[in-house]
Amino acid sequence: MCHMKRVSLRELHQGTGAWVREAVRIGALTITDRGKPIARITAISEEPRGNPFQSRTLRPGYAKLRGKLGAGADSTAILTEDRAKR
């Protein structure tokens, strides 16, 4: 990151794409509103990590139940049976 440049909210609104590319080039931009800093646009420096769902592990409680669980009940059959009783 070379330095932090300040950009007014109005300037950002008028040229958002150019200012975002500038933030990537220099590392960060500080956005101001009436001279007061209100936000910062920073470049993403790290590569996105892989899919967290592919690398997760099963919780011990679920791992014990795995393979022991049945298919469950058919809710349609239960409702049909219940309605037939009435």
Structural features, described:
The structure is a single chain. The chain has helices spanning about 10-15, 15-25, 60-65, 75-85; strands spanning about 5-10, 30-35, 35-40. With about 90 residues, it is α+β, with helices and mostly antiparallel strands. It has a domain at about 5-40. Strand 2 and strand 3 form a beta hairpin. The longest helix has 11 residues, at about 15-25.
What's this model, at a glance?
The chain has 86 residues and is an alpha+beta fold. Helix content is 40%, strand content 20%. It has a 3-stranded mixed β-sheet.
- How large is the radius of gyration? 28 Å
Work out the helix count: 4
Overall morphology: elongated
| Helix/strand class | alpha+beta
Instruction: Report the sheet-strand fraction.
Output: 15-25%
Helix content: 25-40%
Which parts are unreliable, with pLDDT below 50 for 5 consecutive residues or more? Answer: none
Mean pLDDT: 84
Beta strands, count: 3
SSE string, helix = H, strand = E?
Answer: EHHEEHH
Strands of the largest sheet, in order across it? 1-2-3
Q: Main beta sheet, described?
A: 3 strands, mixed
* Terminal CA distance: 74 Å
